[in-house]
Amino acid sequence: MAFRTKNLFEKTTKLVRSYSSDKIYTHMSLTLNEQTGIATLELAKPPVNSMSFGFLSQLAAAVQQSEADKYKGLIITSRSSGVFSAGLDLKELHHPDSDRILNYLRRLQDVWFQLYDCSTPTAAVINGHSIAGGCLLALSCEYRVMVNSFKIGMNEALVGVPVSPMFIACMQSVIGQWEAEKALLVGRLFTSEEALGVGLVDEVVGGKSEGVCKAEGYLAGFREVSARARGLSKRYLRQEVVRDLVRRREEDVKKLVEIISSRGVQDSLGEHLERMKNKK
Ligand SMILES: CCCCC/C=C\C/C=C\C=C\CC(=O)SCCNC(=O)CCNC(=O)[C@H](O)C(C)(C)COP(=O)(O)OP(=O)(O)OC[C@H]1O[C@@H](n2cnc3c(N)ncnc32)[C@H](O)[C@@H]1OP(=O)(O)O
């Protein structure tokens, strides 16, 4: 079979350089199956694929590449066998420099808009725990296949930070208002099976390769469909959420910076980081 592992940064060097000071393409790899036209983006930032500034920049470049090269589909998964993504890098949020946190949150917004609003068909193979920002990443895709025995959800309530509008909108659009409210207000993490029950994921499988097959099956369903019509329909379907968040993006970012920088939130983040350190 003809596989081409693309160093994304060959083509997007300019973009990535202007986005990031991290070393080029260190946190993920993009592999295109030239026979199917489906690319797999494998997150590879040990130990937990936390979303640092550099990670978000590379994710943005990958999504942009998928759009520019008109891939038939994009599958997002993790190279780790235990963690899909632990979400935002807590070190970016704890004792942040004011300019950096502003730019970090703007970057997060940019990536989210790019992925959520992209015309490329997308699927997530969640082969490990998927927490907060990790859950957002999966929810921004169209289809989710989850490997059993892991946890997924948005735990902000337990971390002591508010769930931001972008995260709420995504959760609501997938599981509905009431289920989202019940889950988000207590920071509930669902097992794979519970996630299936509530509609947070579309399928539960026994392992990653089975998950990839299911995701490919979903993406192959569009073979006979006009890519242009499909892409436009997806955008129309998602435009209400996007429009609202675009309209208020600067207001949301500034408010969040203020909240994150507050003493109470910083104390909670510090305690959360301490708990993680002490769990060993
Ligand atoms: C308007 C636009 C703006 C949008 C909104 C923006 C911001 C709003 C404000 C906040 C939003 C926050 C959303 C988030 O995503 S916050 C992150 C929440 N995530 C977590 O709490 C995950 C915590 N991690 C875990 O539960 C476990 O690590 C996990 C189950 C993922 C894996 O467990 P495992 O046992 O395999 O690994 P550990 O030993 O726990 O961890 C290994 C190592 O990694 C460090 N680490 C874990 N998670 C993070 C993280 N999110 N960021 C940074 N570092 C992390 C952990 O501390 C260990 O480090 P070390 O001890 O080995 O040094």
Supply database-style keywords:
2-enoyl-CoA Hydratase, Chain A, domain 1; 280 residues; alpha/beta; 54% helix; single chain; binds ligand LCMDX3IU; disordered N terminus
Commentary on this structure:
With 280 residues, this protein is of the alpha/beta class. The chain has a single domain (3-278), classed as 2-enoyl-CoA Hydratase, Chain A, domain 1 (Alpha-Beta Complex). Helices cover 54% and strands 17% of the residues. It has 13 helices and 11 strands. The strands form 2 sheets. A 7-stranded mixed β-sheet has the order 1-2-3-4-6-8-11, sandwiched between helices. Strands 5-7-9-10 form a 4-stranded mixed β-sheet. The longest helix has 21 residues, at 227-247. Ligand LCMDX3IU binds at residues 47-48, 50, 82-83, 86-91, 105, 108-109, 129, 131-133, 155-156, 159, 161, 164, 166, 252-253, 256, 260, 276-277.
List the SSEs and their pairings.
Blueprint: E1 3-6, H1 8-19, E2 28-33, E3 38-43, H2 53-68, E4 73-78, E5 83-85, H3 90-93, H4 98-116, E6 122-126, E7 129-131, H5 133-140, E8 143-147, E9 151-153, H6 156-159, H7 165-175, H8 177-184, E10 189-191, H9 192-198, E11 203-205, H10 208-220, H11 227-247, H12 249-261, H13 263-278
Helix pairs in contact: 1-2, 2-4, 4-12, 5-7, 7-8
The protein binds ligand LCMDX3IU.
Protein name: Enoyl-CoA delta isomerase 1, mitochondrial
Main location: mitochondrion
Organism: Phaedon cochleariae
